[in-house]
């Protein structure tokens, strides 16, 4: 793997992150619970990671602001427009994933 200038690497990573956000925005039908079941992260996780990264840089960013940056609009609006209630099957799959993580000592 080639060594990149740190500023170039940061710009590449930032571009990839922006592309991930666009991809998620283009696929609002993919529900957060599905992301949690399949990938163990969701849009809210991204917001928490963004908030933590901001704090590491000495930037004050609360959870609502971070979620608005991830969702592209206030979370309550996004939720009203795009979030569907979790199905019993989704809830069962999520609980099974959480139980498996706990059994592995990951939770």
From TrEMBL:
Gene3D superfamilies: SMc04008-like (1.10.3340.10). SUPFAM superfamilies: SMc04008-like. InterPro entries: SMc04008-like_domain (IPR023163), SMc04008-like_sf (IPR036810). It comes from the Bacteria. Residues 30-95 form the SMc04008-like domain. Pfam families: DUF1244. It comes from Marinospirillum alkalitolerans. Transmembrane segments: none annotated. This is DUF1244 domain-containing protein.
């Amino acid at each position: 793997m080639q060594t990149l200038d740190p500023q170039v690497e940061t710009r590449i990573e930032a571009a990839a992150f922006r592309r991930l956000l666009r991809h998620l925005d283009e696929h609002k039908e993919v529900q957060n619970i599905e992301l949690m079941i399949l990938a163990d992260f969701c849009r809210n996780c991204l917001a928490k990671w963004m908030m933590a990264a901001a704090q590491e840089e000495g930037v004050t960013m609360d959870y609502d602001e971070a979620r608005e940056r991830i969702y592209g609009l206030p979370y309550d609006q996004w939720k009203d427009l795009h979030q569907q209630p979790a199905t019993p099957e989704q809830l069962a799959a999520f609980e099974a994933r959480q139980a498996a993580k706990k059994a592995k000592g990951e939770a």
